[in-house]
């Protein structure tokens, strides 16, 4: 409580990476500050181990981190896991403020590009409800795209392929696409046809109710089935790859998880 009265942000460290966190954060920043970890700290190495053991190296490649939040995926990706660069896409202003501060604090400005936007199937703009306001006045947690009502602002929407083209990054230089966007994962993947065509490894958050509410579930399943060979539930079970044709069953077997899709469909 004393810290909340003194500062809007705190700095916490994990594995020699410093993270700037809003004291009102009730998302990854809260878990990181209180428990010293977040799910992605376990999920990323698990995904990389599966990819490397199946002959898909990622060292020196580009990570595209959609829904980057405060950087708990992008920062360790380039600092610890061998990625050469990250393109971090995030629309929530409070998260962006913390993310940019963390990038600077870790001296990673030349390796992490922060894109202040949402990502979707087509470029344009969309209404975005910011994370909730805490009793201390700061925003907290993830916002929601495409909703009306209180605390809504218009944000730019980009496509993953468009951002790669604007930075002259060829699709074959991308080692992983990471998507955590509150149910819009299918729309984001639809905006990355260059990556989908070559079955670029993708880790996507799974919250079936949110996917259905955003009209994204069927699209996500179709895209994974059409191009990918395998899917793995990274949070539950034995982490053994299953045929991508079973992605609907894998998604339906959980309420919250992260799924890796990889391997070009023959």
Could you describe the 3D structure shown?
The protein is of the alpha/beta class. It has a single domain, classed as 3-Layer(aba) Sandwich (Rossmann fold). Helix content is 33%, strand content 28%. It is built from eleven helices and 16 strands. The chain has an eight-stranded mixed β-sheet, sandwiched between helices. It is globular, with a radius of gyration of 17 Å. The model has no long low-confidence stretch (mean pLDDT 90).
Explain the layout of strands and helices.
Blueprint: H1 2-6, E1 9-14, E2 17-22, H2 28-35, H3 39-53, E3 62-66, H4 74-79, E4 85-89, H5 93-105, E5 112-115, E6 118-119, E7 124-129, E8 132-133, E9 139-140, E10 144-145, E11 152-158, H6 160-166, E12 174-179, H7 185-190, H8 193-197, E13 202-206, H9 208-213, H10 217-227, E14 228-233, E15 242-243, H11 247-252, E16 257-264
Parallel strand pairs: 3-4, 3-12, 4-5, 6-11, 12-13
Antiparallel strand pairs: 1-2, 7-10, 7-11, 8-9, 13-16, 14-15, 14-16
């Amino acid at each position: 409580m004393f810290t909340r009265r003194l500062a809007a942000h705190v700095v916490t460290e994990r594995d020699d990476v410093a993270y700037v966190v809003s004291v009102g954060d009730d998302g990854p920043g809260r878990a990181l500050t209180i428990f010293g970890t977040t799910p992605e700290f376990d999920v990323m190495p698990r995904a990389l181990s599966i990819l490397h053991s199946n002959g898909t190296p990622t060292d020196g490649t580009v990570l595209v981190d959609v829904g980057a939040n405060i950087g708990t995926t992008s920062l360790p990706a380039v600092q610890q896991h061998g990625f050469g660069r990250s393109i971090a896409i995030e629309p929530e202003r409070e998260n962006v403020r913390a993310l940019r501060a963390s990038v600077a604090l870790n001296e990673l400005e030349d390796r992490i590009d922060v894109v202040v936007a949402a990502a979707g199937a087509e470029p344009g703009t969309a209404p975005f409800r910011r994370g909730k306001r805490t009793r201390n006045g700061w925003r907290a947690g993830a916002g929601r795209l495409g909703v009306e009502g209180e605390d809504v602002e218009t944000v730019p929407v980009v496509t993953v392929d468009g951002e790669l083209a604007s930075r002259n990054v060829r699709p074959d230089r991308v080692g992983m696409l990471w998507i955590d966007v509150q149910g819009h994962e299918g729309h984001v993947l639809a905006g990355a046809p260059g990556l989908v065509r070559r079955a670029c490894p993708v880790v996507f958050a799974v919250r079936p109710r949110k996917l259905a509410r955003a009209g994204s579930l069927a699209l996500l399943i179709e895209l994974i089935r059409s191009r990918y060979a395998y899917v793995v539930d990274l949070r539950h079970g034995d982490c053994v790859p299953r045929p991508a044709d079973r992605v609907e069953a894998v998604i339906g077997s959980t309420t919250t998880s992260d799924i890796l899709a990889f391997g070009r469909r023959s």
